[in-house]
Structures are given as structure tokens and as C-alpha cells.
Amino acid sequence: MVYRVIHETAVVIIIIIIIILSLQDDLLSDCAKSDSVFLLSYLSDWPTKFGGIPDVLPTKQPFWDRPGVLEDRALFEASLKSTQVWASFLAASSQHTSDWLFALPIASCGLRLDYEAVRVAVGLRLGLDLCVPHQCQCGSPVDARTYE
Fold it and tell me: Does pTM surpass 0.85?
């Protein structure tokens, strides 16, 4: 009995996959040979900006996005003037930089941040001013992006 249910389920899944694949082929059949003005314009600009076009056009979007993203990043990095802004950019663009946002706030496990900690963390992440510039009790100046 269990074998029959598993077998029938497998048959249904295979039929669904066949239907989806044929539907996908129908939907994407015109994409590979598109003569849109935008695509032709993009392909004519590609060699001067990013090098030669492959004989077979890749169908994965990251192939087409990556060179433009890298070019935009290089332009943005060139515009960064101060070391503080550069450090903030590197910290914000590093891998896993926002993983702490996915932590569950379970107070019994010590995973709940108080409001001040969240304010400081978000302010540092966004490069915002954290306080008003003032003179520290020790005599040294404190700028707007410093947290004591």
C-alpha cells in the first residue's frame, strides 16, 4: 500500500516536471533570438567596455550584470576621499556584514540587544553621526562619529 502511494506520487511529480519544462521552453523560446533594440544596443557597446562577446550568449543574468557592477564599484571607490569613509564602505560591503540582523532576540540566551546598542550598531553601519561633537572629560575632543 505504501509502495503504491509512493509510486503514484512519483509519477505525478514526473508529469508535473514534464509539463513545467515544456511550458518553460515555450516561454523562453523567443528569448535566445531576441532582436530588441535594447539588446542590440547593449551588445554593440559590450566589446568596448568589457571585451569580446562569447559565441554562445550566456543565459545566466550574473554574467551580464557582473562587469557593470564591477565598473560601478570602481567608480564609487575612486570617489571615496577620507579613510573613515573608505573603512565604512569596506565594512558595509564585506561578506556577512549584516548577519546580526537575522539573530533572534531571545533574552534568556543573551541575544537581545538594548535600544542603545541597536542605535549605535545601525549608526555605525550607515556611517551616521552618533553624538554631538564635544570635549571628553579626559580633555581629548570627541567627534560626531565616535561612541564612548
Answer: no
Grid coordinates representing 3 are 509502495
Report which secondary-structure segment, H or E, holds 84.
Answer: helix 83-93
| pLDDT tens digits, one per residue of 35-92 | 678 878 888 888 888 888 888 878 888 888 888 898 898 999 999 888 878 887 888 8
142 pairs with which residues across the strands?
134
Distance CA 117, CA 114 (A): 5
Residue pair 100/121 in contact (Cβ under 8 Å)? The answer is yes
∠ CA 27-30-31, rounded to 5°:
90
144 touches 132 (CB < 8 A):
yes
Q: Are 96 and 103 in contact (CB under 8 A)?
A: no
Alpha helices (runs of H) in the chain, residue ranges in sequence order: 2-28, 37-50, 61-79, 83-93, 115-126
Coil, strand or helix at 57: coil
The three-class DSSP label of residue 98 is: coil
Question: If you compute the radius of gyration of the chain from its CA atoms, what whole number of angstroms results?
Answer: 27
